[in-house]
Design goal:
Blueprint (H helix, E strand, L loop, with lengths): L1 E8 L8 H17 L4 H5 L3 E3 L5 H6 L7 H22 L1 H22 L6 E3 L3 H14 L4 E10 L2 E10 H18 L6 H21 L10 H5 L7 H19 L4 H5 L2 H20 L3 H14 L7 H13 L3 H14 L5 H14 L3 H9 L8 H19 L11
Antiparallel strand pairs: 1-4, 2-3, 4-5
Length: 404
């Protein structure tokens, strides 16, 4: 014999799963209250086959179990998949959905059994297979932590493993499909499980496409389309951004000036600004610098907005991209009228500290406005000028300018 018990999951649920626990407690209480009843009294609560419609039984049969092993097995699976579905729906939607799936299944089974031999159906397993199908749709790559135990030829083994929800669900549903095919579609336990999964799948699709389930864009459709964590709009924006990057990389540099209209160049420049800002917002210094270089090379006369330029220099400084930072700062001070004097001072400081370029540093400092600077900046400029002249007097010589 082999048993598997899904114990917990990494699927997000942001509160104690009170609805799932409440359903488990209700099932246990129903079993305890009815186990001492005679068979005839218990059958009044099970789903009778071949005796017409009994709507109350559609509900009560879900909470009836044949014995304690039947109960334990169902409750373990109700916990494993219930907490996933509850996490996507919230408790107030989850309970009626669970009851609705189970009752719809019981009603369907009673309907197709109207003209068959007498018998009965009981247990929560069909509704639980419905939860399994929903979890497979809504959280396919979440993981289940499972325990297992087996008993074979006087040998006992126990252990645990982790498996994705979609793999676990497909294995169990596939086993039921095979069993149903081998039994010719007879109303067996496998048939009940499979039909419960089909109803759950249909309900799960309806809830998903009507926006009732919060799948955080980790649903099976997001996985298949490779947009995990992104909405369709965000994924489309990412594809557009990648297409813009590819166009900037592959387009000949001189083609824009001769082939593109002014309107097209403006759109391209706007796209370059947006691309740079996305990288800056993400704090991606290397990506932002790459976006800056691509746009500058591809779009004639392009330069960032001053605030974006300053932020680009900041993130590059934080990332210690000294040599590339110098190029960006030189472009800034050469392009922006009334450039921030602190950028010139910082550029001169980097040239002296990291690159041993005192003559170049002096040229940068000479570009400061002749008007008065704030006292703190004025003192900094004087110190940098003195350092650059001392270094030159010590014999450090190099051509002024930005050639590297």
């Amino acid at each position: 014999m082999f048993f598997i018990f899904p114990i917990t999951t990494d699927a997000p649920i942001f509160y104690w799963p009170r609805a799932t626990v409440g359903l488990i407690v209700t099932n246990v209480l129903a079993y305890l209250l009815t186990r001492e009843m005679g068979l005839e009294d218990r059958m009044a609560y099970a789903l009778l086959r071949g005796h017409g419609f009994h709507p109350l039984q559609w509900l009560t049969a879900m909470f009836m179990h044949a014995d304690y092993l039947h109960l334990i097995g169902n409750m373990v699976f109700l916990w494993g998949f219930g907490i996933i579905v509850e996490g996507k729906l919230g408790p107030w939607k989850y309970v009626p959905i669970y009851l609705g799936v189970g009752m719809a299944h019981m009603a369907a089974m009673q309907a197709i059994s109207l003209h068959t031999e007498h018998g009965f159906i009981l247990g929560a397993s069909a509704a639980i297979y419905g939860l399994m199908a929903m979890a497979m749709l809504w959280a396919p790559e979440s993981h289940l932590q499972c325990w297992y135990a087996y008993f074979f030829l006087f040998r006992v083994g126990v252990g645990s493993f982790e498996i994705e929800v979609v793999r676990f669900s497909l294995i169990f549903i596939a086993l039921e499909v095979v069993t149903v095919l081998l039994t010719g579609g007879a109303m067996s336990t496998a048939f009940l499980h499979l039909t419960g999964a089909i109803i759950g799948l249909a309900v799960g699709l309806v809830l998903f496409f009507t926006g009732q389930a919060d799948c955080e864009n980790l649903d099976i459709f997001a996985v298949i389309s490779n947009r995990r964590g992104m909405s369709r709009a965000e994924a489309r924006e990412r594809r557009d951004e990648e297409a813009r990057e590819k166009a900037l990389r592959e387009r000949p540099k001189d083609a824009f000036a001769t082939e593109l209209s002014a309107e097209a160049r403006k759109k391209l420049a706007d796209a370059a600004h947006q691309h740079l800002r996305q990288r800056l917002t993400a704090g991606d210094a290397a990506g932002a610098y790459s976006a800056y270089i691509q746009a500058r090379d591809a779009v004639p006369g392009w330069s960032p907005e001053p605030k974006d330029w300053l932020l680009l220099m900041k993130v590059m400084a934080d990332a210690a991209m000294s040599r590339d930072l110098v190029r960006v700062m030189e472009h800034y001070v050469a392009t922006v009228r009334n450039a921030d004097p602190r950028v010139r001072l910082k550029l001169a400081h980097i040239l002296l500290r990291d690159h041993d370029r005192p003559a170049h540093a002096l040229t940068v400092l000479e570009g400061l406005d002749s008007g008065p600077l704030p006292t703190s900046l004025d003192d900094t400029r004087d110190r940098l000028v003195a350092t650059a002249r001392r270094r030159m007097e010590e014999g450090v010589l190099e051509l002024s300018g930005g050639d590297w």
